[in-house]
Amino acid sequence: MSSQDLNEIDKTKLPLFYRLILKVPGVDFLVSSSSGIFWAIIVPIFLILEFFLNFMLLILFPFPINIFLASIIPVAILLVCVRISLERFINWWNLNVGNNFKWDVEQSMQEYLTLLKKKEGKDG
Fold first, then answer.
1. Where are the alpha helices (DSSP H) in the chain?
2. Phi and psi angles of residue 9, each rounded to the nearest 5 degrees, phi first
3. Each residue's pLDDT tens digit in the chain (124 positions)?
4. pTM score, two decimals?
């Protein structure tokens, strides 16, 4: 695989399946700074309430309808998670692989060693 093959991913040139996944409505508040509160408090409460809601849907409605109603919420959550995973992968690819960043470890080590020598010179 040559370096020309490792280009940035253009969302408009993706196959139809991936473009459809990216059209699923997103959850923009997951990226905000309060995501820790969201995952630690709101998601467990939501999962418990969703369990009881599915239980009630399975009991209250007759057979073919109850299975359909009980599967709507997990399928919606799965679609949102797949969309978030796809967006994160595209962002990771474009940042790490697509921009053809040159990894020059020797130069970085030399710069680091000169910084350490300067710091030792100031301290000593």
1. 16-22, 35-37, 43-60, 63-96, 105-123
2. -85, 120
3. 555 566 778 888 888 888 888 888 766 655 555 567 767 887 788 889 989 999 998 999 998 898 998 898 888 888 887 887 888 888 888 887 766 666 788 898 999 999 999 999 887 6
4. 0.60
Instruction: Specify if 31 maps to a domain.
Output: yes
Whether 77 is covered by a domain: the verdict is yes
Burial of 7 (0-12, 13-18, 19+ CB in 10 A): middle
What total of structural domains would you count in the chain? 1
Torsion of CA 54, 62, 67, 16, to 10 degrees: -120
Q: What is the rounded distance in angstroms from the CA atom of residue 21 to the CA atom of residue 116? A: 48
Answer whether residue 36 is part of any domain: yes
Name the nearest CA neighbour of 84 among 42, 22, 40, 12. 22
Does 16 reside within a domain? yes
The token duo for 21 is 């996944």
Nearest-angstrom CA–CA distance, 81 and 79: 5
Q: What is the pLDDT of residue 19?
A: 86
Domain span including residue 106: 11-123
